[in-house]
Fold this protein.
Amino acid sequence: MSADPATPEVIVAPTRAEPSPWSFLAGFTTLALISGVSIGLGKVVTQFFALSIGADAFQIGLIMAMESIGMVLVTVPAGFVIARFGARRVYAVASTGPLIANLLMPFAGHWIALAAARLSIGLCIPFRIVSMNSTFLAQLHRIGVGKAGWYRGALTAGLALIGPALATVLVANVNYVWAFVVIAALFAIMAVGSLYFFTDEAAPPQKGLTAGHIYDEARTLLRNRNVSESCLIEFISSATGSLFGAFVIIVAAQVHGLTKEDGVHIMLFHGATTVLALFGAGRLTQGLNKWWAYGGGLVLATAALVLLGTASGFWQLALGAVLLSAASALVHLVNMRLLSDYPGEKSKISGLYNLSSMTGSSLGALAGGFVSKIVAIQTVYLLWLPVLWLAAAVLYFVIKGAAHD
C-alpha cells in the first residue's frame, strides 16, 4: 500500500545507545581521574615555571588566584548554559580553552602573561566541572547511590596524589614546553572521551540566559531544602578543608622535630584517606539519615581540628588529617545522594553546589591567612571551631526551620 503523498515522511534520527552502568562508571571515573591529574599537574608545573622566569611569592599567589577568580565568576551561569546546550557539547568545547592556554604558557616571558593564561583556564573549568557533576548526578540512580563518591574520589586521586607526583617527574626530566604539551594532551583526551561517556539532559523550554533570569531561578532552586542544606554544608566543608591544606605544611615545620616534608606526607595521608572513604563508604551511607550524617561529620571535624590545633607530633597531625578527610567524605556522600533525588535539571543545581565549594575553598584559606597575622598559625585550627559550630547552628535552626518548596 503506497504512502499518502500529502503526508510528509518523518525521519527519526537513531538515538545514541546509553552505555551500561558499569561501562559508564569505568569510563567516567577514568575521565575524572585524568581531569584531576591535569589540574594537579598544571598547578605544580605553572608554579615551577613561574619561579623559572623570576616571579616572586606574591606574584605566584596572584597567578594561581586568577584561576579561582575566573571559576567563581562563571560557575552558576555554566549550569544554565549546560542546561540549554547539553553537557557533552559544552564539556568538549570548554576543554579547548585550557588546551590552547597550556600550549601558549611556556612562551610567556612575564608573570602577568601567566596570570592571564590561568584566568582563561579558570573561565573554562566551571563548564567542565559542572558538566561532569551534572552528568554524574543524572546517572547516579542508574549506577547506584552506593557509588556516590566515585566521581570525587577519582578526581581527588588525580588532583592530590598522581598529578603532583607526575609534575615532579616531568619537571625533572623534560623542559617546560614538553611539560605543558603533556597537560594540553590530557585536555584533548578528555574532550574526545566526553563524547562517549557524557549524557545530556532533555532540553528545557528556551529561556533567555539573562542575569536576572539566572538570579531568579537560582533563588527558586535554593528554596528546596536539600539544595540549600547541601550547598551550606559543602561551603563550610570546603572552607575547613582549604584551611587545613593551606597551613598544615607550615604547622608541621613549626612542630618540634618535624619538617616541611612531614607536612607533605600528612597531606598525602589526607588525600589517600579521602579517596578511600569516597570509594568505599558509599554503601554504608546510602541509607543513613542526613542529620545523623551531618552530626557525625561535625563531630569528626571537631575532633580533627582539636588534634590539628594541639598536636605536638607527626601522628597527632596525621590522625587529625584522617578524621577531617572522613568528615568531608561523609557529608559529600550524603549531599550527592540528596541532590540526585532533585527532580529538576542537574546542571543548574551542580552550578550552585560547585559555587559553594569554590567560594568555601577561597574564603577558608583567606580567613585563616588574616587570622594568622594575629595568632600563632596552629591556633587558627582551634579558632575555626566556633565558625564550624555556628554554621551547624544556622543549618539546623535557621535553614531547616525556614519555609521551603
